[in-house]
Amino acid sequence: HAHSKTLLVRLFNFIYIFTRRVRGHDDFVIEVNPRHVTYYRRLLNFAIEGAERPCPRVNGAPAVLLRLDLAIPEREVRRVGGQGATAGERTLYHYFYSWLEEGAVAEFLARHHRGMSKEDIGYFGLDGAETERPQAVAVAAAAS
Q1: What pLDDT, in 10s, does the model give residues 5-55?
Q2: Which of 42, 22, 37 is CA-nearest to residue 103?
Q3: Apex CA 15: angle with CA 13 and CA 20, to 5°?
Q4: What is the DSSP track for 26-70?
Q5: Distance from C-alpha of 87 to C-alpha of 139, rounded to nearest angstrom
C-alpha cells in the first residue's frame, strides 16, 4: 500500500493512546514475523519477549513475541511527538500526535470505544479464557 507507513504509525499511535491514556495499561505485546523484528525494535523500541515459534493464527508461520513498555512512547512523544520529518531521527514517534494533541484523541477514543461483539470474537478466533481480555488479544492479532 502506498501509505503503509502512515497507516502503521496511526495504528500504533491510537493503540498507544488508548492503552496508556484511556485504559492505564503499562505494556503492549505483539507477535511479528522474525524478518520484521529489527524494524519494530529500531523504530518503536520494542523488546524481544519470547523465542521464535510457529504461530497458529497464520498457518504456522514463524513469529516472535515483542513487548513495548508504554512509558517509552510516552517519553518519546513528550520529546519529539508531532515534529514529523523535522525531528531528524530514525524513530516513528516524531510522527505520533504531540502530547498536547493526545488529550483530545484519548477523549475521542474513550467516548467512542465499544467492546468486541460476538461476531468480532469469532472473526479473530478467540474463545475460552482469551475472551476475558478480547481487546488485548485482538489488538495483538491485528498488529501481526
Answers
A1: 889 999 999 999 999 999 999 999 999 999 999 999 999 999 999 999 999
A2: 22
A3: 100
A4: -EEEEEE-GGGHHHHHHHH--EE-S--EEEGGGTTEEEEEEEEET
A5: 28
Residue where the block lists cell 524481544? 48
Residue 135's beta-bridge partner residues? none
Q: How far from each other are the two terminal CA atoms of the chain, in whole angstroms? A: 16
What the block records as the C-alpha cell of 69 is 513498555
H-type alpha helices, 81-133: 99-112, 118-123
Q: Would the pTM count as exceeding 0.85?
A: no
Distance, in Å, from the CA atom of 116 to the CA atom of 130, rounded to the nearest integer, reads 12
Q: Residue 88 carries which side chain, given as an amino acid letter?
A: G
Q: Answer yes or no: are the C-beta atoms of 105 and 14 closer than 8 Å.
A: yes
**Distance from chain centroid for Cα 50:** 17
Residue of 96, 62, 101 whose CA lies nearest to 80: 96
- The CA-based angle 19-134-58, given to 5 degrees, is 105
- In the chain, the amino acid numbered 28 is F
| Residue whose grid cell is 503499562 | 26
